[in-house]
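User: Predict the structure for this protein chain, please.
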Amino acid sequence: MCYDILRQDRYDILSSWSSGLVSTSGSLQNVRFRFEQRGLVTRSVLQALRQSLPELSVRAQAILDALLLTGGPIGNADELASHLGLRSRFDLARFLKREGLPPLHNLAGWASVLVWLDSAERTGCSLCQLAFRCRRDPAACYRTVRRITGLPWREVRRHGSRWLLQRFAEKCRV
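Assistant: Here is the predicted structure, written as structure tokens:
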């Protein structure tokens, strides 16, 4: 559910943003509201991420927003590249590197962990419960958290969203 139903909405966001049509329009706000209502991410996480990475281009912001608004993976790199007006996944990789962002699969992992932590802080749910809601294997989610942060979920949860956003911003500046 978290992946399949939202796929077209993700590409709508990316297509609109990459063409420069929607950067702050009401239609984007409506899309954000729909995703927030589904419980995938809160406005505060989006704003905090924007504040911690203000130097990103509109396209890079669109990619991050789409990843956060959908809770992680947004499809393969070739499809994403074509929606952003890039020729290939290699152009996408070079673009991400120029922007100071990690590769797409790592970005998706960071987005997943940020969304899970935000949801856990808001609802008090465990990662296992959040994984079941998104029809994902809980063990894979716990491994993703450890791979991305280097810490187990318990420690990440103790540190909180602000800490995780700082770590992500540091990773992007490297």
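DSSP finds eleven helices and no strands in the chain.
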